[in-house]
Design a protein that fits this description.
5-stranded mixed sheet, globular, alpha/beta, 6 helices
Length: 238
């Protein structure tokens, strides 16, 4: 299996190639990441071409394309999904879609050394402006405990989960929540900034590939979670 994965769900952009025989044998062959304010479609296609070529392969050799489906930046998701769908149609390859928050959790869960008699939950957070975040909850095995949602954070947020479990918050939305939730003894905050990456999108996508969890490129849409909001431009003063 040779899998290309793409993540443009936030301001950063990453592409990765995984190869191997089955979900447990997938090996990261290459990964390129850019940390810029805006990622254009031209930059993304250049990264894709480079990472595939530099791993010694051609686009035609790919077995599938995986995309980080969201939630995240509206513009970023549109660019990533449009590019992935275009590749699927051009190369006649299947499409796989991975929840961005699940892929973020995989970055942390793999290396978690938290040990206690009390359960530990993982809560990835993506900043959604003001005191709102996109978040979900996963247990130590990566199983979803509470589905992805847009949450406005208050001192009482997640009180039911924090009462019975330690919760590790991380992602670019966690820092702004720490002053509000940090008073709770079971609220833990990761010092390292966890940014969505095609590395773990690809890891999860290899399992989805093995179980045949494919999307229809013709109808697939990003997981925006919220409607795209625009502001009316101010009228010029005569």
């Amino acid at each position: 299996m040779l899998l290309l994965s793409i993540d443009t769900s936030t301001a950063s952009c990453s592409v990765a190639v995984h190869g191997g025989n089955g979900p447990d044998a997938a090996t990261l062959l290459g990964c390129y990441e850019l940390f810029t304010e805006r990622t254009s479609a031209a930059m993304l296609t250049t990264l894709i071409g480079d990472v595939v070529r530099h791993t010694g392969h051609e686009l035609a050799q790919l077995d599938a394309i995986a995309i980080s489906k969201g939630p995240g930046s509206y513009t970023g998701l549109r660019i990533g999904v449009s590019t992935a769908k275009g590749l699927c149609f051009a190369l006649d390859k299947p499409l796989l879609a991975i929840n961005t928050l699940q892929a973020m959790t995989e970055q942390v869960r793999q290396y978690a050394t938290l040990s206690s008699e009390q359960p530990v939950l993982f809560c990835p957070m993506i900043d959604a402006r003001r005191m709102e975040v996109y978040c979900a909850f996963y247990d130590i095995t990566g199983r979803e405990i509470r589905p992805t949602a847009a949450e406005i954070i208050t001192p009482d947020s997640f009180a039911d989960l924090l009462a019975s479990s330690r919760v590790l918050f991380f992602g670019d939305g966690a820092a702004k929540c720490q002053p509000t939730l940090g008073h709770h003894a079971n609220a833990l905050f990761l010092d390292q900034l966890i940014i969505p990456s095609a590395r773990t999108v690809g890891q999860l996508a290899t399992k989805a590939f093995a179980s045949g969890q494919f999307e229809d490129p013709a109808t697939f849409e990003p997981f925006y979670l919220k409607e795209f909001m625009t502001t009316q431009p101010r009228r010029a003063i005569a």
